[in-house]
Amino acid sequence: MGKLYIVPINISESPLERVLPDFNKQTVSALRFFVVEKIKTARQFLRKMDREFPIDDSVFYELDKHNDYSFQMEILDELKAGNDVGLMSESGYPAIADPGSQIVSMCQYSGIEVVPLVGPSSILMALSASGMNGNGFTFNGYLPKKDPERSKELKNVVTTIVKTSFAQIFIETPYRNETIFEDFLKHGHADLKLCVAYDVTGPEEKIITKSIEDWRKGKFQFDKTPCVFVLGN
Amino acid sequence: MGKLYIVPINISESPLERVLPDFNKQTVSALRFFVVEKIKTARQFLRKMDREFPIDDSVFYELDKHNDYSFQMEILDELKAGNDVGLMSESGYPAIADPGSQIVSMCQYSGIEVVPLVGPSSILMALSASGMNGNGFTFNGYLPKKDPERSKELKNVVTTIVKTSFAQIFIETPYRNETIFEDFLKHGHADLKLCVAYDVTGPEEKIITKSIEDWRKGKFQFDKTPCVFVLGN
Prior knowledge:
2 copies of one chain form a homodimer.
Chain A: E1 3-6, H1 16-19, H2 22-29, E2 33-36, H3 39-49, E3 59-62, H4 69-80, E4 85-88, H5 101-109, E5 113-116, H6 122-130, E6 137-139, H7 149-164, E7 167-171, H8 177-187, E8 193-198, E9 206-211, H9 212-216, E10 227-232
């Protein structure tokens, strides 16, 4: 039986030696079967990691296009034939706020060994650098896009923070960062804290925590750079 | 002004090149000021990372012993004097299920730049390899030790999973792993899934997800090895 390796890749434009251990290169260089979010990104990553990587001798299964039962069985067949398989998403950690968990779940169900490699997670790095509660926290993913669901969810989150002190983590599509930021300022109590983690591990990285009251006094230039938001007390 | 670096260290007995990028070694080798959970562990890590590390020329502030206002001000003075400071815990990621967040919070409040390095987080790696919901999850830390609080909390968690589908992550003191495992089997519905992530990144790593029903049919040998537990549907 092969193993399923969970292969994190770089976030942003960070050089690989900034964010990936040497062991990942050794491990991934030996793989010839991959389940990927997008083939183009996966190929670019493999070439960046190892200029000699035999991409044309490798097999790529693309999650974006197919994710049905027969697709999963094809991957399972590779593993059962003894081939190790690497799982990669477009950025950062697969299966965390990214596709891939169905494949992992299928492997777990079928008794395939799953081995996670170390790599960058903007969610975890944002939380650790925010100074907020690392003993209890919730990752909420994306807020609902429209009202009344969005405002309701924001109110629930603020209530939960007051009740539990758990930090609440969110991500957003980059072009909507300004909007979610303004919503936090609108719905958060003045003394709650908000951390904006901008371009984590990248050349423009800024991870800044301020009270809602202090954020209301200024502006933050978001451009269209990926951000993680942490709200807490 | 100096910067505060969040310095993850190895978990378990894993070699450093398994879990830390080269960039960490370059960055940490240049530091001479550290805030650490335990000085002994910090020294061992620095020597393992770099046999030539000038430990005797370095200053260590120990979190376990002092964490009051004047201790925080001493660290802030180092940073204000232009010295970069590294924050380390005993294992894995500082400030996540580990001490350190108060120091980070103080730095954020004082406008000190906080830079998280990449490293192993057993919580994140367990979740990604569990195959459970990576789009929404809660890290709950430790369960209350005694009933009725413990049973009540377990019932709440099961209700939350059914309602939200968020994966629920827990850790436990190693000698109590058997107890928490039995409690999950007792309180979980038969079709919920439980992942046991044992010795993550270590030589005995096993990350196994099964339904509660299937776990009830067998045993798991815990010894006294650190584990992460993920419960979900």
